[in-house]
Amino acid sequence: MGDSHNKNRIKCVVWDLDNTVWDGVLLESAGVPALRPHVRDVIEALDQRGILQSVASKNEPEPAMTALAAHGLDQYFLYPQISWSSKSQAISLIAERLNIGIDTFAFIDDQPFERDEVLSVHPQIRTFSEIGLEQLPTREDFIPLQLTADSKNRRQLYQREALRARAQEDFRGPEDAFLRTLGLKLRLKPASEEDLYRAEELTLRTNQLNTTGVTYSAEQLRELIASEHHQVIVAELEDKYGAYGAIGLLLLSLQPGLWCIDLFLMSCRVMSRGVGGVILTALRTTCRNRQLKLAAQFRETDRNRMMFITYRFAGFREEGAWLINELASIPALPDYMQLHIDAAMDWRLQ
User: Fold this and answer.
1) Would you write out the chain's pLDDT as a tens digit for each of its 350 residues?
2) For a disulfide at 189, which of 10, 74, 168, 342, Cβ 3.0-4.6 Å?
3) ∠ CA(153), CA(195), CA(250), 5° rounding?
4) What are phi and psi of 101, to 5 degrees?
5) Is 313 helix (H, G, I), strand (E, B) or coil?
6) Looking at residue 124, what DSSP letter applies?
């Protein structure tokens, strides 16, 4: 079982089907081919760790999905690519749909030609043959640093996201009208001990929408939670399709007469929901009502320009090394989203 070494943890495993997931070639089989040894155990083990899975197979889509369903495995695969196109192209499409880096992908295929074709286009992918499959879950890069409630449910989170995307594609009308159909509920709460690893995972996974590019370890976050001069706030979102999980993190330093946003990050899955603006509106209103000044740190990276735009839309302006908010012209909260703020945070919107 060969591989190309990479230090990043695996976030997605893409499977070939014929002679990899099952024995033999589907289109030459009289019925549903039998699964190869250990395949089911490996798929289930990876799923429980929050590692996403998909399919890149040269096959006819309908018989292939029917065979996977007959084995009860169809539910595990996100955006399966079953066609006669190249495997490298299939993996590109999967990465685009999942919005995760190709350097976190593994590809399993019994054919050396197919593995080489993928590596010729995506040299950063780790490739494996079907031999010794049962060893995969023991490899360090297949073991997440931490298992959180969100990571265990990652496949379901993506499946709900696919339903939302389909509903939005089918919707005829303006964006805010679609958002009203979702029944969005945003909750802001102080991070607790059990949120620590979710918060750490957010800082490690979210580099696009991170206002400073800084990441925090669970230990650092634990110290900040215990500090009376800081608030560590987790944002959670749900709608009629279910929970999005923890989608945002806000780190405030509390100084006399001034609150400063040291870090603000969000999952890119919720950018189009207007969550960033809602959180900043609530924070601006609180500071105005408590007669506090509001500032923010921003450090530009090559990927976080959208967060700078979010700050500017919320009335922040550059002043030296800081972004300052005058707390004027604060908009009303949108009518398409319910906002619940945990009482322990002592935010005052009234």
Assistant:
1) 544 333 588 999 999 999 999 999 998 988 899 999 999 999 999 999 999 999 999 999 999 999 999 999 999 999 999 999 999 999 999 999 888 889 999 999 999 999 999 999 999 999 999 998 999 999 999 988 777 766 778 898 889 888 988 998 999 988 889 999 999 999 999 988 777 777 777 766 655 566 666 777 778 888 888 899 999 999 999 999 998 888 888 999 999 999 999 988 888 777 778 899 999 999 999 999 999 999 998 888 777 778 888 889 999 999 888 899 999 999 999 999 999 999 888 898 87
2) 342
3) 110
4) -70, 140
5) helix
6) T
CA distances from residue 293 to 232, 251, 318, 328, 332 in whole angstroms, order as listed: 18, 16, 15, 11, 19
Look at residues 62, 83, 81, 52 and name the one whose alpha carbon lies nearest to residue 205.
52
Pairing assessment for the beta strands 52-58 and 12-15 based on DSSP bridges:
parallel
With CA atoms as reference, report the closest residue to 291 among 332, 323, 252, 259: 259
Supply 236's token pair.
């959670």
Which residue is it, tokens 């196109």?
A: 85
Handedness of CA 91, 306, 236, 224 (dihedral sign): positive
Token match 């979710």: residue?
A: 198
Residue 312 to residues 177, 203, 298, 326, 342, Cα–Cα distance (Å) = 25, 22, 11, 12, 27
Reduced to 3 states (helix: H, G, I; strand: E, B; else coil), residue 83 is: strand
Rounded to whole angstroms, how far apart are CA atoms 132 and 51?
19
Structure tokens at 249: 């993190």
